[in-house]
Amino acid sequence: MSLPQPLLHTHICRGLNGNLAIAKEAIKYVKGNMPLGASNNGTEAVKSWFSGIALSETGECVLSLKEDRDEWKSKKHRSTFDIIRWTADRALRSGCGNCDEHAMAVYWHLTQHRHDVCPVDLMSIPNEHVFVVIGREKDENVNEPGKWGVDAVICDAWDDQAGPANHMFDTWKFFNRFEAGRKPIRRWHRTQ
Asked: How far apart are CA 185 and CA 126, in angstroms?
């Protein structure tokens, strides 16, 4: 079976407000398609419980998804794009995922279904958190979020947050882990 390739389209930068609107729409899309949510997010666990979903159901779903992905990856070398595509597809179909699955689902949605999105980066603070950045200046160092540009927006579906990167990094709970531990930010994939 041939895997779909990234869509080639012209990116139109929408500015800060446009990028924020796109990020919020992407979060809504992912949350709407992942009703079981994340097994490692306390807020989602409470919401799931009130919706009649047992935390064990979400945990089993996420564990199964990660085990399937590890098995699939072990069969042959997979490109980063293939891993993103496979993970996003499975997370959206199974309805669950932690931060990496949420971020990959957002990234996939934006790169495959939106033709009006300025550059999109799938990024992580290694072993801590995975998220998407919309509109980051191309040549800016990924480890200097304050210089990503005035239009850069962090889109974090796992935490249900979107905001300007230059402001959000000051208050975002994951910034403390990046700053205190001096963990570098890693860019997994970028549209262009």
From this structure: 7
